[in-house]
Amino acid sequence: MDYLFEGVKEFSSQDFTHFRELFEKLGKKQSPHSLFIGCSDSRVVPHLITKTLPGELFIIRNIANVVPFYRASEEYLSTTSAVEYAVKMLNVENIIVCGHSNCGGCNALYMSEEELANTPHTKKWLELARPVREKIEKDPELMKDAVKREWVTEQLNIVEQMNHLLSYPYIRERYDKQEINILGWYYLIETGEIFNYDKDDKVFKKIE
Predict the structure, then answer these.
(1) Given a cut of 90, is residue 198 above it in pLDDT?
(2) What SS3 class is residue 203?
(3) 152 partner at 20 to 30 Å CA-CA among 26, 132, 206, 208?
């Protein structure tokens, strides 16, 4: 636990001092240019991989970078409300759905009922990515290749969640008017490479 407190002390004495003027400005207002929807995985660090400063990204993180379909509800909707706030209140210009390699959430799509019995909320959440599993299961050869199945699942999930975003009326309207960009990124943890989804060619292309 002590290393967490030491980190806070180092931030206060070094990082904060270096960016003091920026933080003073951010203390009054935020104007992020992008909404970053990423996995909660500890290995994915949005500001690190985009080289952005505090105040540039509005970040949503959850298991498997999932975006629920739009719906009006009296429930407490965490991801949905954060998307709404970013688009309607902060007027972000871009929405990035960022998936990654070796995603435990995507892997859990193929777990048995018994394996998920102890994580009922995770199981329920991943129903939002079920169409991805159904697509993969239609390809017997792909189901036999665990490595290929893994990265294809992770990439198809990104595209699936990009499509979910368009079920939000206010996003669809801005997207059709070219007032907001929706990007899909695939991050390879072991190499540091990031691939952007090309909507025309329907493939992920390395950002170079």
Answers:
(1) yes
(2) strand
(3) 208
Q: What are the tens digits of pLDDT across the range 153-172?
A: 999 999 999 999 999 999 99
Expressed in angstroms, the distance from the first to the final Cα of the chain is 39
pTM exceeds 0.90, yes or no: yes
Residue where the block lists tokens 């992008």: 34
Sign of CA dihedral 48, 103, 131, 142: positive
Tokens at residue 68, please?
């629920």
φ/ψ of 151, rounded to 5, equals: -75, -30
- Please list the active-site residues: 39, 41, 43, 100, 103
Residue 103 amino acid letter: C
Q: Is 39 assigned to a binding site?
A: yes
Residue 103, annotated as binding a ligand: yes
CATH classification of 31-206, choosing from 3.40.50.720, 3.40.1050.10, 3.40.50.1820, 2.30.29.30?
Answer: 3.40.1050.10
Is 100 assigned a ligand-binding role in the annotation?
A: yes
Residues in contact with 181: Cβ distance below 8 Å, sequence separation at least 6, in sequence order = 93, 94, 95
